[in-house]
Design a protein that fits this description.
The protein is an alpha/beta fold and 105 residues long. Helices cover 53% and strands 16% of the residues. It has one domain: Toll/interleukin-1 receptor homology (TIR) domain (Rossmann fold). Pfam families: TIR (PF01582).
C-alpha cells in the first residue's frame, strides 16, 4: 500500500487544474497521492475538481500544453509519466467545475 502525505482526517481534497499544471512534476506527484488516498485508503474520500483556464477534455486527453509538458517529462521522469497521465485522466473524469465556462456565461 502506498504511503501518502494526505492526513486521514480530511474528508475531501481539491484538485485545481490549470494550463501549465502538467509541467510541474510536484503537482503531478501530489495528484497521484490524492487519487491513491481515494482509491486505496478511503473510498469515501472526496476529490473536487476545478478546471481553471483549461478545458477538462485537454486534461483528460493530455493535448495542447499538457502534451508539451509530457514530452518534456519523458526526458527526466519517464518512469512516472504513465502514472501521471492515468491520474490526470481519472481526475478529469470526476465531477467538478469548469471555471472557463462559468466566466464566459
Amino acid at each position: 500500500m502506498a504511503t501518502t502525505s494526505i492526513p486521514h482526517r480530511w474528508k475531501y481534497d481539491v484538485f485545481v487544474s490549470f494550463r501549465d499544471y502538467a509541467s510541474s512534476s510536484w503537482c503531478l506527484k501530489e495528484l497521484v497521492k490524492i487519487l491513491e488516498c481515494k482509491q486505496i485508503e478511503n473510498p469515501k474520500y472526496e476529490v473536487r475538481i476545478i478546471f481553471y483556464d483549461v478545458k477538462p477534455d485537454v486534461v483528460r486527453k493530455q493535448t495542447r500544453s499538457y502534451a508539451e509538458a509530457f514530452r518534456n517529462h519523458e526526458v527526466s521522469n519517464s518512469a512516472e509519466v504513465g502514472k501521471w497521465k492515468e491520474a490526470l485522466s481519472m481526475a478529469a473524469d470526476l465531477s467538478g467545475f469548469d471555471l472557463q465556462d462559468m466566466t464566459n456565461g
